[in-house]
Amino acid sequence: xxxxxxxxxxxxxQEGANxxxxxxxxxxxxxxxWFHQNPWGQxxxxxxxxxxxxxxxxxxxxxxxxxxxxLLYISSSQTTDSGVYFCAVEHYEDNFNKFxxxxxxxxxxxx
Amino acid sequence: KAGVTQTPRYLxxxxxxxxxxxxxxxxxxRSVSWYQQTPGQGLQFLFExxxxxQRNKGNxxxxxxxxxxxxxxxxxxxxxxxxxxxxxxxxxxxxxGQNGNTIYFGEGSWLTVV
Lengths: 111, 114
Known about the structure:
The structure holds 2 protein chains of 2 kinds.
Chain A: E1 4-7, E2 10-14, E3 19-25, E4 31-37, E5 43-48, E6 52-56, E7 59-64, E8 69-74, E9 83-93, E10 96-101, E11 105-110
Chain B: E1 5-7, E2 10-13, E3 19-24, E4 31-38, E5 42-50, E6 53-57, E7 64-68, E8 74-78, E9 87-94, E10 104-105, E11 109-113
Parallel strand pairs in B: 2-11
Antiparallel strand pairs in B: 1-3, 3-8, 4-5, 4-9, 5-6, 7-8, 9-10, 9-11
């Protein structure tokens, strides 16, 4: 399989602060996505970003596939940003494309 | 456009029973994949179905099975339930499969095994 590691595991921010979440993976991947899971369990797709940089409002993401990492930037954080952020990669093995998730970064934004 | 719909949302079963969970993908999406989320193991990929065929599978025992119908709706079944099967089961759909496509998740089915 492939190892997907996210850091930090927990993050507490004051509203308005910026943060960077990291996702490292141990092998080349076909696909990388970032998700936000709200307190009710719903996973919302944030970015599909196998390489390069994308921005969506206060969020942006960068994946450097050759160095096997991806970064998620949150600027001017809001309390609604709280939840767990997962990165997921797709890895080809045993004639299958399999999806692997990191263990997540739990973000708590305080007012 | 309606999102991914999972039913039931919550259920409680006893050890040894079996359970069937249902997932209706976004209209036009042909790929449906299933995931198990537990506090200890995190999010784990179960299997993916595309055009009624299992295309990908994770590392789960044969007690976990699934199928997909011609309208792309999918069901997963867990037989001989164990306490450790208590989890949030998530379904996701995409247009043409996980490879190179954005996947969209349903709200999940919370299964408790007692």
